[in-house]
Amino acid sequence: VDSTVINEEGIDVLADYLGKGPEVSAWTAKAMGGNVKFEDALAARLALIEPSRSSIESCIKDRPFQLTPGVEGLVGALHEKGVDVWFVSGGFRIMIEPIAEALGVPRTNILANTILFEDDDRGTYKGFDPKEPTSADMGKPRAVREVKASKGHKTVVMVGDGATDAQAVAEGAADKFLGFGGVADREAVREKADWFVYDFEEVTKVVKGLD
């Protein structure tokens, strides 16, 4: 979702909003480059931010997400062809739900991390749910396998910008990997992608031409 469906990293936006931008961005770069275990980067970033439910809601209101150019048309074309669209993300469900709603993707088609909050007025940060498959390294392959097993999809194409997206194919969960470099262009992702694009319009044209 981050740097693919939207043109930024959600956790970096939240960190910047809460005054922890540079520290968290450094961890995000490590995680997306595959240079550190994802669960370690996730825990470190959340420990730096300690986001409450109220602060996240304020961030979403004050810093609304920006869709990546062309993604709305691509998702629409996929839906017209009867293709099931899922959001598999190392980001946070609470921040992804408004994005999914804007694109007509059901909330049940989101596999992402759940932030835990205390039951108080602010919803003080309590941690994150380690049972979510996307909370750990190699989580996206596990999440894709869950989708395949539960929905019976014969072919799954993973679309993304980072090393964790490429893992889904490397581990045999997804069938193909479409790398996207329109926001963040990573050499390691280009090398692993079956198809690499900088513009979703290119993909939309192909989808519209499918029988």
The major beta sheet can be summarized as:
3 strands, parallel
Number of helices: 10
> What is the CATH topology classification name?
Rossmann fold
Biggest sheet strand line-up = 5-6-7
Q: Return the average pLDDT rounded to an integer.
A: 94
Number of domain modules = 1
| Low-pLDDT segments, ≥5 res | none
Cofactor: Mg(2+)
InterPro entries: HAD-like_SerB, HAD-like_sf, HAD_sf
Protein name: phosphoserine phosphatase
EC number: 3.1.3.3
Account of the protein in words:
The chain has helices at residues 10-17, 21-32, 38-49, 53-62, 71-80, 93-103, 139-151, 163-170, 187-192, 200-208; strands at residues 87-92, 110-113, 115-117, 125-128, 157-160, 176-180, 195-197. It is α/β, with parallel strands linked by helices. It has a single domain (10-208), classed as 3-Layer(aba) Sandwich (Rossmann fold). The strands form 3 sheets. A 3-stranded parallel beta sheet has the order 5-6-7. Strands 1-2 form a two-stranded parallel sheet.
Summarize the structure.
Its cofactor is Mg(2+). This protein is of the alpha/beta class and 211 residues long. The protein contains 10 helices and 7 strands.
What descriptors fit this protein?
about 210 residues; Rossmann fold; two-stranded parallel ribbon; 7 strands
Secondary structure elements and their pairing?
Blueprint: H1 10-17, H2 21-32, H3 38-49, H4 53-62, H5 71-80, E1 87-92, H6 93-103, E2 110-113, E3 115-117, E4 125-128, H7 139-151, E5 157-160, H8 163-170, E6 176-180, H9 187-192, E7 195-197, H10 200-208
